[in-house]
Design brief:
alpha+beta, 2 domains, five-stranded antiparallel beta sheet, three-stranded antiparallel beta sheet, 9 helices, about 15% strand
Length: about 300
């Protein structure tokens, strides 16, 4: 049976983390806190100041190398992690690791959109993505529809969320997927975050304050970076984003955002169920249910 894509090749415990960091960095550790693990890295907060990231698999080493290189060049209106330590060939450990500044904020996935000024948040994100998308920080790639790979496994993806969504909601999603037309060579190829789910956007109680986890940054269709915020907040926050973004999306761009955001929400539901995170499962289910109830998937090619 195939392992899930976030399955690690090894375990990493607190005493090991402290030994690795002390041996290779030489800092005195007073407090070590496990921040959790995403698909690619173990994340440990040391002395409440530095987040150390350890690749979970050999295949994740290159993404960490690319991330720390990108972060050294990144300057945006929102804060991003700064590289404090980079250990490429550590002693007594088999993978490189990095230490980044700890950024304080609440992941937006933990904040209901009804509790925020979504217009303000959208304008802030639009300004930030304008700055990012006008930088050339990643190598050019052959243009491809970001949904092409998702759609190869869409039946499996739908099956994974049965029980978390009502049958009526799931039928609307399936109809929207049938209506979507894969684009062979989408334009607007720019440097993107490329994994901008709301778990990677931090909120300070008033506005967005930081964007984290840049391991998947790549040249791609720029509208991939709007999918997560649409899934979370729908048309109101998306409209506000484009008030401060440097170009208007056409109908095909909007269809891509809506369908990509839908797939993102379904993946979050599946991931949450696999790791037994009930709060994330409820949140992601509520996002996409609200998008369906608001009629945003009735015509995925419709205007905002």
């Amino acid at each position: 049976m195939p392992q899930p894509p976030w399955q690690a090749e090894y375990e990493l415990h607190e005493n090991q983390v402290c030994t690795i960091i002390t041996t290779n960095i030489g800092i005195e550790i007073n407090v070590a806190e496990f921040l959790g693990e995403g698909w690619d890295f173990y994340n440990w907060l040391i002395n409440k100041r530095i987040v150390f990231r350890f690749p979970k698999r050999h295949s994740d080493i290159d993404t960490l190398v690319q991330e720390q290189r990108l972060l050294r060049k990144l300057e945006l209106p929102l804060r991003t992690p700064s590289v404090k330590y980079w250990c490429e060939r550590p002693l007594d450990f088999h993978k490189p690791f990095a230490g980044y500044s700890f950024l304080v904020g609440t992941p937006l996935e933990e904040v209901p959109s009804d509790d925020c000024d979504v217009a303000r948040l959208g304008r802030t994100l639009g300004t930030c993505l304008t700055a990012l998308h006008n930088r050339r920080l990643t190598r050019p790639l052959v243009p491809a529809d970001p949904l092409a790979l998702w759609f190869k496994n869409k039946k499996e993806l739908f099956a994974r969320v049965v029980g978390a969504l009502s049958s009526d909601v799931l039928e609307v999603i399936k109809s929207a997927a049938l209506a979507y037309r894969i684009r062979p060579r989408p334009s607007h190829q720019v440097t993107t975050h490329n994994d901008l789910g709301v778990e990677h956007i931090l909120y300070d109680g008033t506005d967005l304050c930081a964007i984290i986890d840049w391991a998947d940054a790549a040249t791609a269709n720029g509208f991939v970076d709007f999918a997560g915020i649409w899934a979370w907040g729908g048309a109101p926050v998306l409209k506000a984003c484009f008030e401060n973004y440097y170009m208007e999306p056409d109908r095909e761009d909007l269809a891509q955002i809506r369908m990509h955001g839908t797939c993102y929400a379904l993946e979050q539901i599946y991931y949450a169920r696999q790791i037994h995170n009930e709060s994330l499962c409820r949140a992601a289910s509520a996002w996409i249910t609200q998008r369906v109830q608001d009629g945003e998937l009735n015509d995925i090619y419709g205007t905002l």
